[in-house]
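Fig. S4 source data, part A: sequence.
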Amino acid sequence: MDILQLDCRSGLLAHHAMIPIYASIAAFARTRSRPERGRTKAQRGLRPYGRAFLLVQSLATFFVAALLLFIGFTDMAGAQTSSSGPSAGRSLKLVAFGDSLSAGYNLAASAAFPAVLEQALRQKGLAVEIVNAGVSGDTTQGGLERLDWSVPDGTDGVVLELGANDALRGVDPSVTRKNLEAIVARLTERKIPVLLAGMYAPRNLGEDYAKRFDAIYPELAKQYGLVLYPFFLEGIAGDRALNQADGLHPTADGVKVIVRTILPTVERFIATLPSRS
């Protein structure tokens, strides 16, 4: 059986605004009458209208300082809103559309390619949500058949990773190409951009097969003007330490290498996506 079929500015402003408040309170306290021998006595040299004037002046100072403090908090809120960047708006919604390599065969959901890529992009400050639409064992034909319900309306972009199972089964490269082209064409009609993740054929299938299969991805990318990542397993193919016992599926560490390697291409792809309100 085919293995792939297994399934701080505001704080400074507030501080400065608080200084006149404390000063006005202290000044107000100094103008108050002090108890002397059981009765109240005005400070020497101050007439009644003088005390009233100082009281009004202190209250005015207090009011102005409070107003400045309010303005500071308002300014702080505005700064936070304007500097929040992508997180303040709608997150981009990408779909990782592929087979077990995307699905995360034998891995926790949090260790699968879509989840790890989403985390890496968010660490870069990009508000992105990546839906895992990988199905273990899927071929390009299977992907074409489930495309419409796997990629819902409102999707901003698709990372298309299919073809490995076609190669492992020895499917005629012309059939694989036809299916992938149909997928790309349908997504293009829906105005959903595609990042095409390529695959290489196993060399034991012969030079002619490998040449025809390997050419599918760059040719489609050129034909449709797609962002191309030539080989999805770049950096881990053939490395036992980064692949599971079957030698075909990446370990959790292998997925991290895939993400780290493909990340610049995904960032470039995201930069080409049209903005949506």
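Fig. S4 source data, part B ends here. Confidence is low (pLDDT under 50) at residues 5-49, 73-88.
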